[in-house]
Inverse folding.
């Protein structure tokens, strides 16, 4: 497993944090290379709007052209620039850069709200038999090195399924029944619940 590139520049994080650009990256990660017109169809947005956001992402090195997939010189196919490994977000470095404190704070707020929505949806009483919703919680007694080894093993599993997902995205006829699934994974020392020792205010 190669080291993932780190996002340390507030301008890159600001570009990445835009809702439409986040969705574009999600689609490229899940489906593999796409044309702006394909992304516009998937997101139900005007093609010129999507093309603008794709070019913005390319300007910050988050997406890149895949010329080997183009039909001709005018055809532009885009892929995530991370090579399938993903990016590592270094919020400390972002906050330390000029203008980065506000960008990092805004990201934390957006990411926290998104995590809350994901958990609420997973625990929702409205169940759809056509989809899977799952939350897994586990605890381990680990050193930092052991935690890093666990992270590496989990990342290898994600790489395998990312490759499988992108291969399926190459075959539209096989796309029936598929939707973009999102996995939220947090590995860190356990955070106490409210009301338990060290957990903050009691109810």
């Amino acid at each position: 497993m190669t080291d993932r590139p780190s996002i340390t520049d507030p301008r890159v994080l600001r570009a990445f944090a835009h809702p439409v650009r986040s969705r574009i990256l999600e689609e490229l990660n899940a489906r593999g290379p796409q044309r702006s017109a394909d992304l516009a169809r998937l997101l139900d947005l005007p093609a010129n709007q999507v093309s603008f956001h794709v070019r913005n992402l390319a300007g910050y090195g988050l997406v890149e052209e895949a010329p080997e997939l183009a039909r001709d010189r005018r055809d532009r196919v885009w892929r995530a620039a991370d090579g399938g490994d993903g990016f590592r977000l270094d919020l400390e470095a972002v906050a330390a850069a000029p203008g980065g404190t506000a960008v990092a704070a805004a990201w934390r707020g957006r990411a926290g709200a998104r995590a809350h929505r994901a958990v609420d949806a997973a625990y929702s009483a409205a169940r759809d038999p056509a989809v899977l919703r799952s939350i897994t919680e586990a605890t381990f007694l680990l050193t930092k090195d052991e935690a890093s080894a666990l992270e590496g093993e989990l990342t290898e599993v994600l790489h395998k399924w990312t490759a499988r997902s992108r291969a399926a995205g190459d075959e539209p006829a096989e796309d029936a029944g598929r939707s973009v699934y999102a996995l939220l994974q947090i590995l860190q020392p356990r955070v106490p619940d409210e009301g338990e020792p060290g957990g903050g205010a009691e109810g």
